[in-house]
Amino acid sequence: MKKHSLLEVLSASLKLGLTSFGGPTAHLGYFKDEYVDKRKWLDDKMYADIIALCQFLPGPASSQVGIAIGMLRRGLLGGIVSWLGFTLPSVIVLVLFALAFQSFTLGNATWIASLKIVAVAVVAHAILGMGKSLTPDKPRIAIALGAALIMLLFPSAFVQILVIIAAAIIGFYLFSKQAETNVRPFSLAITKTQGLAALSILGLLLIGLPILANVVTNSYITIFDIFFRIGTIVFGGGHVVLPLLEQEVVPNGLVTSGEFLAGYAMAQAVPGPMFTLASYLGTMISGTVGGIIATIAMFLPSFLLIIGALPFLNALRKRPRFQGVLTGVNASVVGILLAAFYDPVFISAIASGADFALAIVLFSLLHFWRRPAWMVVIVGVILGEVIHFIFV
């Protein structure tokens, strides 16, 4: 391990935290470009296996992928640094937005629309790259297409879980005999004992926090309980967390409906994970300290789950049956990403021929000219302003 690799983790994740617009699907594209293609910290298969693992876990999948990569690079501290770099820019903006809510107007700025178009290019590029490595034959293409069709017809987090389970079962029967014998192991500074301890802590907090919140009247404990529970139970991430959060904070009078929607709009306009909406809501409920507590509570389950799962992934990846399961799940992930590319990525971003033209240019910069994602973000915003000036 290089001497300054912890600084490398911080540098890479901070760059992603400042430029990763477009939601969890786009984040996976940014991650692949930075960690796999550019820095080569892990290969395509390892990256795909981490995504598959995180798809099985509740919580923000893209954040969990980033945490896992940080842990693989530099252990538990690497995971924390990776999370801080990716999450902190969004947290700071949303906390400041909450503090200045009365005088701040978001509006429908052109740069926000441009960032959505950038996401279209990034997600399309990610799907092509992942599809090439994860669906190289007709059976896996069929799984991906089936997953995409089901998700397009029945879009919900529950259906997504069923699709992943079905793909795992199909993979178990179809691909176990085709398992690779030379799977490259990875080194991890976290032991299985520490993993089991993390899962035990998760269970104790999940049971104990609601009891403590009912016994002790304290706004900070209430905030921690609400956001920890949601961070533990939500599958699908991104937009799926919206109704769960709304049900917890609006009917109870912690924030108004208008305040909630304003925070949601800002969470979509900034880079990084949408789960940082918790930072805004916590600040609205109980000031800056409330925002910090809500942020920690929202993401703590992800840390505990990744610590609990990663130590067992190394051994499981060597087993033919588990490889078969991952093969099926990885193929389904391509289909799920394809469905997400249409809704919400494409339909929320492309409203005219000019928008589509910009998306084609940005995709070409990524795919054919191999320009880095951060550069494409800048070009997208500039060209978006030019197009808006000329055609509007």
TrEMBL record:
GO terms for molecular function: chromate transmembrane transporter activity. It is found in: Cell membrane. Belongs to the chromate ion transporter (CHR) (TC 2.A.51) family. The lineage of its organism: Bacteria, Bacillati, Bacillota, Bacilli, Bacillales. This is ChrA protein. InterPro entries: Chr_Tranpt_l_chain (IPR014047), Chromate_transpt (IPR003370). It comes from Oceanobacillus zhaokaii. It is a multi-pass membrane protein. The chain crosses the membrane at residues 76-99, 111-130, 142-175, 195-214, 226-245, 284-310, 322-340, 346-366, 373-391. Signal peptide: none annotated.
